Amino acid sequence: TYVAPEPEPEPEPVQTQTAPQTAPVQSGTVQSSYHSGTGSNLLSSVQIDTANRTITTPSGLTYSYTQALACEATAYSCEGASWNTTATGTTARVGAIAVDPNFIPLGTELFVVTNDGQFIYGYCVAEDTGGAIKNNIIDLYFDTFAECYQFGRRDCTVYVLS
């Protein structure tokens, strides 16, 4: 009788971490709806100065940044949910976003602008994680599902603030 040999064990999958991709950033004014953590969508503009690595908001606040990352942003909300706590223990809210902590460390202060020029999420902090949030995908918090649907999924530039 023939006995088939034992199959070779499959090798363990190698976990690779994608290096942050630097976004091509141009100096200038970006005008679109501006979220700024207040829950409002106002037509506004921000000044992005790549030479000095600064972002200036409509109210005159200026942020310095160390890096601009090319990311893809999705949207989430706790509207109607029984939970509203982030991975860091804070309350989920506009301005608290979900990241892959191997790509963007939790606690990092950021400023997010969509590449299509339609939306400026603005200042936010990496406070949450999510099962589908891997590598350069981030998840932006919105108060309502309607805002999430309006935002959808967009390519964006994430400025790492200094």
Description:
The chain is 4% helix and 40% strand. It is mainly β. The protein has a seven-stranded mixed β-barrel with strand order 1-2-3-4-9-6-7.
What is the topological layout?
Elements: E1 28-34, E2 42-49, E3 54-56, E4 62-76, E5 96-98, E6 109-114, E7 119-128, E8 137-141, H1 145-151, E9 154-161
Parallel strand pairs: 1-7, 4-8, 5-7
Antiparallel strand pairs: 1-2, 2-3, 3-4, 4-9, 6-7, 6-9
Strand order of the largest sheet: 1-2-3-4-9-6-7
Counting DSSP E segments of at least 2 residues, the number of strands comes to 9
* Major beta-sheet overview: 7 strands, mixed, barrel
Low-confidence stretches: 1-5, 10-20, 28-43
Radius of gyration: 19 Å
Q: How much of the sequence is in beta strands?
A: 35-45%
**Terminal residue distance:** 71 Å
Count the helices. How many?
Answer: 1
Mean pLDDT: 81
- Give the overall silhouette: globular
Judged by helices, strands and strand pairing, the structural class is: mainly beta
Residue share in helix: under 10%
Taken in chain order, the helices and strands follow as EEEEEEEEHE
